[in-house]
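re: ur question from yesterday

yeah so i grabbed the chain u mentioned. its 343 aa long if i counted rite. heres the sequnce exactly as i have it in my notes:
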Amino acid sequence: MDSISAETIAGQRLMVGFDGTAFNDDLKLLIGTLRVGGLILFSRNIEEPEQIRQLCRDCQAYARQCGLPPLFVAIDQEGGQVARLKPPFTQFPGNPAMRAFDDAVHFARTTARELKDVGINMDMAPVLDIAPENINSIMAQRAFGGDPQWVTAMGTTVIDHLQQRGVMAVAKHFPGIGRTVLDSHLALPDLDVDMAALTDVDLVPFAAAIANNVAGIMLSHIRYTTIDSIWPASLSPSVTADLLRGQMGYRGVVMTDDLDMGAIKPGYDIETAIKRILLSDVDIALICHKGPDIEAAWQTIHGAIAEDAGLKEKAKQSLQRILELKKNYLSGPWLQRYGLTAA
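ran it thru and got these structure tokens back, copy pasting raw so excuse formatting
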């Protein structure tokens, strides 16, 4: 770990979006200069399967050429309302339409096969939010439902069948946004719910996901006022360091939701957000749109770990978690599938 440069440590803690459908100069900057650890694909990056396959292959090859670990290549493919891949990829009606375990198994097996075939190795799924039926939940059209046991059973089934087939699952949005009615894409919601209710309901699926070795957990941009009255979950040590890692014992990779969302902007500039992330034992900052915030985030991480011994130690711990996950999922056979060779 001591031999890894601060530049690489800073880059590996970023997962970023980009414009374009083919390898380009922007990707050369992101991978070669900023040394990012992951990319996330959106509809703007997608045309058809062979194009995606070539894009992923070229990005991985360039990372290897630059002496970097393999890239996380992620996508939101929940089915239903949130599915970036359109036909000819299999289309699913979404989590609320699932009525049996076989539905979850079929979704996960099919999705894993189709993602892996084009070089995508991480799915930002499943949604583990619990959407009560008596409110106009923002997650009503994306959640498995309002019963914690059902959400747990379906969510862990998706996790297991994605990961058994080599695609990393990311459970979201910790510690649960099903009770909210305000869209965090637009503004920062406050949620005033006591810890007993969170523990007995909202946290149940996440505890099961941890027990099932979920590859990653995504934090919400919700301010849970009984946990932290000042900071949203994605920027709060009370949520990640204390609750998720301390009390719930999660040792895997934790990432934010998109820092470009309205819950974070314009209330928190990128430097403030990144410094909070570094303090909170969050491993990966997700920035989904091209722009100056990506480089500013890299500079903030790089500067912080150069100047603060405590943050440098935390950064090494984060890097260790990231590299361990990459070692487990992005090993030689996976790379060789796409015409690359392992170290």
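noticed a couple things. DSSP finds twelve helices and twelve strands in the chain. also Residues 152 and 302 are 38 Å apart (CA to CA).
anyway ttyl
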